[in-house]
Amino acid sequence: MKTNDILSEKQKLILELLKSNNIDKLKDFINSLKTPLYFLNSTNFDLLTLALSLNCTFYIIKLIYNRCNYKTLNYVVKDIYHLYDMSNHKDETIVNYQNSLEVLMDSNNNVKSPLLVSLEFSDFQSVEFLINKGADMYFKINGKYILEILREENLLTMRKLNFLLKNGFSLKKFKIERLSNFEFKYIKKCLENFVFDTNFIKYLLNLYKNKAGISKRKFNHKVNNEINKIEIPMELYLKYLDRKDYKKVEYLYKYYGTEKTRSFKDFIIFYLNYFDRNFNKKSFYDFFNFIINNENTFPFSKEYAINENETIIINKKLKIVELIKNNNNLKLETFLKNNNYILHCLYSSKSEILKLINEYNVSSDIVDILRKYFLI
Q1: What proportion of the chain, given as a percentage, has pLDDT over 70?
Q2: pTM for the whole structure
C-alpha cells in the first residue's frame, strides 16, 4: 500500500507536524503523549529518518534523536511510501522536494539509513551529528556501502566525499576494488587521502622543524612503505588501458612500487597484446605513441617506444608488399581496412605507392584498392 492507511493516527499527526517543520508544535505533541516517543517507530516508520527526509531543522533532528533514545544509528527503514502523499500540501517547495524524494525512495529497494538520507540531501550538519553519535560510514545496506549507493543514485559529489574523508573515511576499511566503477576523480581523491596522508606530511614537517637528518635509504624506505599501504587492483589499470586513458594508468602506476617495475612492464605488454582485438597492433602503436609524444613516468623510454613503432611500420609495409606480389586483392583490401589507423605512416608520398605499382606490375584491381586507401 502506498497511502497513509498503513499509519496509526498518532503517526499521521506527527508526520504532518514534521512536514510543517514547527518545533514548538512538535514539542507540545510529544509532551502530550502518554507513551515514549519511540513507540511510534516501526520497521517502516522512523521519526529520525522522516525528519531528515523532510529537511526538518537541525533542532528538530536533535530533539527526535534525544527523545527517541536511539541505541544505534546503524539501522534501516523500509518502504517509506507515506512520505509521497503531498498533494494537499500548500507549500510548493515542499511538494517539489517530495517529488525528488520519491525517486530516491524508489532506489535501493526503498531501504534507507539515517546517515544515507542526510548525505542524499547534503545535510552536512546532520551528517556530522550522526557520525559523532555513532553512525557508521561503512554500514552496509543491501550489501552496499553508503558511498556506493550515492554513486548509483548519481548523488555523490566531491564535497560529500571530502566531508566523509575529513570525518575518518579511509581506504583502510573500504577496499579500493569497490571504487572501480567510480569516476576517476573520486578514486584519485581517496588514494591521495590514504597514501602520503597527513601523518606522513607531519613526519616530514617534524624532520624539517627539528632540522633532523635522514639518510636516503631510510627516506626511500619510508616512501615505499607509504606506497605499499595499498595495492591497486589490476582491473583498474586494465579499465583505463583499454580506454586508452594513459594519463590515468600513469597516475595509478606511481602507487605500483619501484621494486616491481619489471613486472609492470611485462603486465602492460601482455595486456596490450590482449587488447589487440583486430590483431593489427593498434593498441601497441597508440600506447607507444603516447610514450613518444608525452612526458611521463612509465618504465618505457622514448627510444624503446620509437623502436617498437618503427618495427610495427616495417612489418606492415612488408605485409603489403607480400600481398601485392601475390596479387591477392581480397586479403590486401582486408589488411588495409584493418590497418587504416597507420596507413599515413607507411608511405609518405604518392610516388612511393606508384613505385610499388610499377615495380610489381600489379593488376587493375590492386591499383583500385591502393587508390582507395592511399588516395592516389
Answers
A1: 89
A2: 0.82
